[in-house]
Amino acid sequence: MVHILGVNFHELKLVKKALESFYGLGPQLSQRIMAKYTIHPRARLGTVPPKTITALTAELSTMTIENDARRIVQDNIKRLRDMGTIRGRRHAMGLPVRGQRTRSQIRTARKLNQLERGGTYSKI
Fold it and tell me: Which of 1, 37, 52, 94 minimizes the number of CB atoms within 10 Å of its CB?
């Protein structure tokens, strides 16, 4: 098991997929990080030296990922709601925000525009 930023990964997992499993890290950013530490795109975590794993952990600890990124997104949505913009109101009602069709296809938007409060999900 390889330990990166408080998460245990199996040694056979691809480094790219392990990096992308963190919230806020996408394919492009994970490729940049791997290029910075000269890690092959198809490399597995078990083949990466421990010194590089430590450097990866240090690099990830300086970035805004996981809870920090989630908090930023929630703060932005809260700011829109407080200003009273149309986007904020649609977030509050659980409707699609970016101009999607609402006559028949809003199931996904209602599911995604929810916030967890006290163990149950309710609208933002």
Answer: 1
